[in-house]
Design goal:
Helix content: over 70%
Low-confidence stretches: none
Shape: elongated
CATH topology of the largest domain: Arc Repressor Mutant, subunit A
CATH class of the largest domain: Mainly Alpha
Radius of gyration: 19 Å
Number of strands: 0
CATH architecture of the largest domain: Orthogonal Bundle
């Protein structure tokens, strides 16, 4: 097997368990000792054939985190730490259900309280979403 095939196989193995960002795959290949030029070629090939797509990855990951009760700040942080470009992160966030709506569902389930407001803050919800929770607490 040629070195290029080894790098492709390493990348494909990483993609078997879940979708990954280009930066995550690049880091994995670098960690396996694959040189920069070869990594670029492998990633280019995988992007061209649709195995790696940061926009698709960001949308799916953002939806997954939102479904698990995360706010925009937490989702943004997660995607940025995975090496997704800021404009791709913002586009993925724009496609989500509004944060206030997601927060309202959590409030309906947990109850309107300071404890729920703290929970939402810890999950990355912004001040606007929190306002609706504590405004009626008094």
């Amino acid at each position: 097997m040629t070195p290029g095939e080894d790098a492709v196989e390493t990348a494909l193995r990483a993609l078997r368990s879940r979708d990954r960002s280009t930066a995550e795959l690049d880091a994995r290949l670098a960690g396996k000792g694959v040189g920069e030029t070869e990594r670029e070629q492998v990633l280019e090939t995988l992007e061209r054939i649709g195995y790696v797509d940061d926009e698709r990855f960001a949308r799916a990951r953002a939806e997954q985190l939102a479904d698990r009760g995360s706010g925009d700040a937490l989702i943004r942080h997660d995607l940025e730490t995975r090496g997704v470009a800021l404009e791709v992160v913002e586009a993925a966030l724009a496609e989500l259900e509004p944060e206030r709506v997601r927060a309202a569902r959590i409030v309906a389930r947990r109850g309107r309280s300071v404890k729920t407001a703290r929970y939402l803050a810890s999950r990355g919800f912004d001040g606007d979403a929190l306002e609706g929770v504590v405004a009626h607490e008094e």
